[in-house]
Design a protein that fits this description.
alpha+beta; four-stranded mixed β-sheet; 2 domains; Glutaredoxin
Length: 135
């Protein structure tokens, strides 16, 4: 198993952060997208979309797209549950968001800058940030 990666690209960065939070170690193989290595015929056989990251499984199957890779590892190793356990947690989960336009309570609660005090439930965090999450 390995992940085809490019350190400077944002989508592979999401996968690396997800794996770090899970404590999962997977070897990475760098693909130089600046030289167009991801546009080669060999790479297109692995991922027809010709983007990184790509997870290559031990049986040769390939999973592309950062969220699909994160979902695969969440299913393989459910603890800690980064996508959440309860529907309210899953629906407001920052790992599932592709939009950076809203403040995510889960990220704020995990931030080292969080104010000291009693731990809050996900529901309490959501209520405290309703202003930011309204449409």
């Amino acid at each position: 198993m390995k992940i085809l990666d490019e350190k400077r690209a944002p989508n592979p960065r999401r996968v690396r952060a997800f794996l770090a939070e899970k404590g999962i170690h997977v070897p990475f193989e760098q693909v130089d997208i600046m030289s167009g290595a991801h546009k080669s015929a060999d790479f297109a056989e692995v991922n027809p979309i010709q983007r990184v990251p790509v997870l290559i499984l031990s049986d040769g199957a390939a999973i592309s797209e950062s969220m699909a890779i994160c979902r695969y590892f969440e299913a393989v190793q459910p603890a800690p549950p980064l996508f959440g356990k309860m529907p309210i947690e899953i629906s407001s989960n920052p790992w599932l968001s592709t939009s950076g336009t809203r403040i995510r309570p889960w990220l704020i609660s995990k931030s080292p800058k969080s104010p000291p005090g009693p731990k809050r439930t996900s529901r309490e965090w959501l209520r405290s940030f309703e202003f930011w999450t309204r449409d």
